[in-house]
């Protein structure tokens, strides 16, 4: 059984890591973008951000003044047992979020949508979001925190099968141009694209593609992987760079996740993560071990399964 105190302590450590330390995969992608950028203002922004990230790490301060809206993704093995059960788990994550808001500090960004009530701790109705995933076998729990910008940089459209791949590209470019020209996202960013599902699950797919896939990873479907490469190149060909200035590095990577949808539609969502790509991951074991990493490893074969039952031996044979 996994100790609830260990979960809370780990969650607090993850909040600090996400707020302060850029994941290596994104940092490498950003450095690559900076090395090829020739737009004056875009180059200036990229160099300033790289210096800012280093200063944040040295000073142990949040890398960006707007620390986003903290959220949690929790994945566990099928045999996992948690002290106090799922209610205790969620309470521990809420305590860790509130305490970290005071101690790091994080900007208290969460308010009631109508009354603007602010508890000053990023906690409230439905906040922070906690989403779950499960894997066959194992006794462990993965805690993943993402501090995603909570205002813009997201769009949705109901496409139709006849729109095809060209329709996907058009909407993708429409979104990037709007994000850049109207200041709706902080570029360059990891772009997540959700295709299919229902409207709500399509949005979830796109956000997870942006937040839970690392730079350089590719979808296990070769055709989708090829489209990811094409969308990354396409996004960097529109003449926009950092923060929408003239440049050629708007997209650090493009990640696509799909879900089966209604036969008459082809839903699509587009999500820009953030120039400050904030995520941190830890696996917690019943014996007290904690292993920190930056790759969420969320999209396993099991998460993308198409069959009624999960039979990994058959999947491997195919």
From TrEMBL:
It comes from the Bacteria. Pfam families: Fumerase. Keywords: 4Fe-4S, Iron, Iron-sulfur, Lyase, Metal-binding. Transmembrane segments: none annotated. Residues 10-282 form the Fe-S hydro-lyase tartrate dehydratase alpha-type catalytic domain. Belongs to the class-I fumarase family. This is Fumarate hydratase.
């Amino acid at each position: 059984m996994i100790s609830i105190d260990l979960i809370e302590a780990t969650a607090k450590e993850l909040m600090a890591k996400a707020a302060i330390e850029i994941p290596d995969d994104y940092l490498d992608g950003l450095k690559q973008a900076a090395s090829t950028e020739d737009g004056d203002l875009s180059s200036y922004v990229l160099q300033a951000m790289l210096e800012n990230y280093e200063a944040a790490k040295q000073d142990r301060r949040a890398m960006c003044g707007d620390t986003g809206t903290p959220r949690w993704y929790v994945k566990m093995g099928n045999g996992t047992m948690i002290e106090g059960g799922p209610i205790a788990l969620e309470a521990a994550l809420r305590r860790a979020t509130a305490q970290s808001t005071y101690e790091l500090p994080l900007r208290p960004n969460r308010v009631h949508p109508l009354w603007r009530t602010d508890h000053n701790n990023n906690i409230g109705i439905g906040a922070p979001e906690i989403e779950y995933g499960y894997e066959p076998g194992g006794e462990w729990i993965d805690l993943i925190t993402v501090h995603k910008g909570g205002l813009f940089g997201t769009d949705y459209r109901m496409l139709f099968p006849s729109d095809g791949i060209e329709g996907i590209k058009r909407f993708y470019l429409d979104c990037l141009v709007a994000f850049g020209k109207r200041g709706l996202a902080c570029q360059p960013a990891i772009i997540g694209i959700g295709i299919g599902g229902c409207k709500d699950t399509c949005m979830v797919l796109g956000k997870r593609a942006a937040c839970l896939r690392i730079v350089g990873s590719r979808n296990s479907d070769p055709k989708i992987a090829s489209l990811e490469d094409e969308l990354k190149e396409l996004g960097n060909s529109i003449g926009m760079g950092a923060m929408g200035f003239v440049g050629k590095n708007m997209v650090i990577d493009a990640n696509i996740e799909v879900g089966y949808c209604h036969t008459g539609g082809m839903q699509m969502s587009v999500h820009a993560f953030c120039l400050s790509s904030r995520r941190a991951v830890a696996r917690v074991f019943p014996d007290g071990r904690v292993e920190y990493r930056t790759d969420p490893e969320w999209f396993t074969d099991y998460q993308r399964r198409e069959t009624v039952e999960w039979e990994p031996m058959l999947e491997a044979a195919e």
